[in-house]
Amino acid sequence: MAEYITPIKRLIEEFRRLPGVGAKTAARYAFATLSFTEEDATRFADAILGAKRDVRTCPVCCGFTAEEGECEICSSKDRDRSVICVVEDPKDVMVMEKVRGYKGTYHVLGGVLSPIDNVSVEDLNIKELMERVKSDEVSEVIVATNPTPSGDTTAAYIARALEPYGVEVSRLAYGIPVGADIEYADEVTLMRALEGRKYLK
Questions:
Q1: Could you give the angle at the alpha carbon of 197 between the alpha carbons of 99 and 124, nearest 5°?
Q2: Are residues 127 and 99 part of one domain?
Q3: Does pTM surpass 0.85?
Q4: pLDDT in tens, 120-177
Q5: Could you list the residue range(s) of the whole structural domain that residue 48 is in?
Q6: Is residue 101 a part of any domain in this protein?
Q7: In the chain, which ranges are continuous DSSP H helix?
Q8: How far apart are CA 146 and CA 72, in angstroms?
Q9: Whole-angstrom Cα distance, residue 165 to residue 168?
Q10: Are 60 and 131 in contact (CB under 8 A)?
Q11: CA 198 – CA 87 distance, rounded (Å)
């Protein structure tokens, strides 16, 4: 069987870099983009470049923002700054925001502890979390890392690290299936997980 010509092969290889995209899906994406008009292709490319250029990191929660300075959630006067929900990735903030009943703030770790992948405490935004707890009047930290071995290890580390500060540390209840990502959980499951969270100390 003949291989794809070089421009298509390169496009497929780029799509394969996306999480969860295998060879067949990447090929479908590549051929779909080939059907774009030149205007559509330009708009598609501009959207990627624009997001890369304009998305910034919030100096408070370490999540994404399109603004200079604090993100919309951190700068809101309607959010309860005494409660911080700790998540792995910026996309998890948007997932948690589906739970309309949560009015606290967030902190994005930027991953989880994983010795196998050479991810240590220094690679995550844990120091920034400690600074927030020290400087703000925080009463509770909800650890919403995914229910995986690495997520559990990270939650346990955070609980131990926060012990000297006298804050309540809770973990999302396992309304979320073990091994699943909260990114794919529905609103009801997320609400039950929040309501049934367990304290770690």
A1: 80
A2: yes
A3: no
A4: 999 999 999 999 998 878 999 999 999 888 999 999 999 999 999 989 999 887 666 7
A5: 6-54
A6: yes
A7: 6-15, 23-34, 38-54, 72-75, 90-96, 126-135, 149-162, 187-195
A8: 24
A9: 9
A10: no
A11: 16
